[in-house]
Specification:
By secondary structure, the chain is of the alpha/beta class. The chain contains 9 helices and 5 strands, in the order ααααβαβαβαβαβα. Strand 3, helix 7 and strand 4 form a beta-alpha-beta unit.
């Protein structure tokens, strides 16, 4: 049975259209353990990770993947901002709340952040910016995500923390940011927002 399952999955994946709808319909009735094995094999085959990432998003959001797992959060510090105490505090609090957290470290480029989000198959991207360059950096990160087949309005919850003027918050939300948390936001509000919205579409 396992051989037939793998064979059918790979036939669909290597078809002319690589039809995710067809793949989701086929595997939906199979045990989760079988899905995991296929995903591992697909990640090895699709070296750039782009199609694998799309498949994971499809299974979790549209295909009804029932695997229970922790919400995966990527905390990133874009640009030249070297102050990361706040980012580390957030990362620690999210871990304590039961999330799986990955921290990129400081001074990451938009391309590095987007690639890490793809390769790590995260549910949430948290961007910490104190430099004032949010209107330059965040659109670049959104563009890099889209270039990798990740739509922040459908596939990934993007949240921003830092010193963001009130008049800029709506601008960020228009391009796909789900929420902006300014200094002084209670930690429980951040945690509850992520729990309530990870995996959901962003409404413009």
């Amino acid at each position: 049975m396992m051989d037939c399952f793998h064979s059918r999955v790979f036939t669909i994946c290597f078809g002319s259209e690589r039809d995710l709808e067809q793949l989701g319909a086929f595997i939906r009735g199979f045990p989760v353990e079988m899905m995991v094995g296929v995903l591992i094999n697909l990640k090895c085959i699709f070296s750039k990770g782009i199609y694998y990432g799309k498949l994971c998003f499809f299974l979790k959001i549209r295909g009804g993947w029932a695997m229970e797992r922790k919400i995966r959060v990527l905390i990133a510090k874009p640009g030249l901002d070297g102050h990361d105490r706040g980012a580390k505090v957030i990362a620690r609090a999210l871990r304590d709340a039961g999330f799986e957290v990955i921290y990129t470290g400081i001074r990451r480029t938009p391309a590095e952040i987007a690639e890490t989000a793809l390769q790590e198959d995260v549910d949430v991207l948290g961007l910490s910016i104190l430099s004032g360059a949010h209107l330059e950096l965040i659109p670049s990160i959104i563009d890099e995500l889209k270039a990798r087949g990740i739509d922040p309005r459908k596939d990934l919850l993007v949240v921003v923390g830092g010193i963001i003027p009130a008049e800029d918050i709506s601008k960020l939300k228009k391009i796909g940011v789900a929420e902006v948390f300014v200094p002084g936001t209670p930690m429980h509000e951040i945690i509850e927002f992520i729990k309530g919205n990870a995996g959901k579409k962003v409404v413009a």
